[in-house]
Amino acid sequence: MSRFWNNVVKFPRFLVSVILGLILTIISPFFVLFRKPSTSFFFIISFTGLLVVLTAIIKKMLNIECC
Asked: What is the pTM of this model?
């Protein structure tokens, strides 16, 4: 029975490693953009614009009034 619980305890560690691997695989192509200053500038501007647009959309969807 202890062998069973040893196997059960291994699954959360496996899950964390799979999730971290997936995140690193998805994010790693974006690190290439930071090698050149011009592409990093455009990437930062684009990412900031994306965040602003998403924030505005979510505020409108949830009818959140600011100030």
From this structure: 0.57
How far is C-alpha 61 from the geometric centre of its chain's CA atoms?
A: 22
Nearest 10 degrees: Cα torsion 22, 25, 31, 33: -120
Separation of alpha carbons 30 and 43, rounded Å: 9
pLDDT in tens, 29-43: 888 888 888 888 998
Q: How far apart are CA 67 and CA 55, in angstroms?
A: 15
Q: Who's near 33: CB < 8 A, 6+ residues apart?
A: 39, 40, 43
